[in-house]
Amino acid sequence: MKVNIQAVNFNVDRKLVDFINDRLAKVGKYYDKVISVDVFLKLENTNEKENKSTEMKLLVPGDELIVKKTCKTFEEGVDVGGDALERLVVKHKEKVKAH
C-alpha cells in the first residue's frame, strides 16, 4: 500500500510522516486490496483550537473511501480518521463479499 502525504502551506516533519505511515499500515490489515492512501494536511485560518484539517482518500478497486477530520493536532486527526477508515474498509469488504 502506497501512502502519499501532501501538506498545504507548511512542511511536514519526519516524525509526523512516520506516524502517518505506521497508523495507516494498520488499515491495510483489514483489506489486502488497498491500492493507495492520499493524506492531505491543512491548517485552517480560524481562531478555534481545532484548526488542523486532515483528509484521507483510500483507493480500493472500484471505489474511493474518503474521511475528513478536524482536530487539535494532526496526529489526533490521523488517528481518529484511521479508525473511521478501518470501519469503512470492513464495511466495503463485506459489501464486496456479498456480491
From TrEMBL:
Pfam families in alphabetical order: Ribosomal_S30AE
SUPFAM superfamilies: Ribosome binding protein Y (YfiA homologue)
Entry-linked InterPro entries: RHF-like, RHF/RaiA
Name the UniProt record assigns to this protein: Putative sigma-54 modulation protein
Gene3D superfamilies (UniProt xref): Ribosome hibernation promotion factor-like (3.30.160.100)
Leader sequence segment: none
Annotated TM spans: none
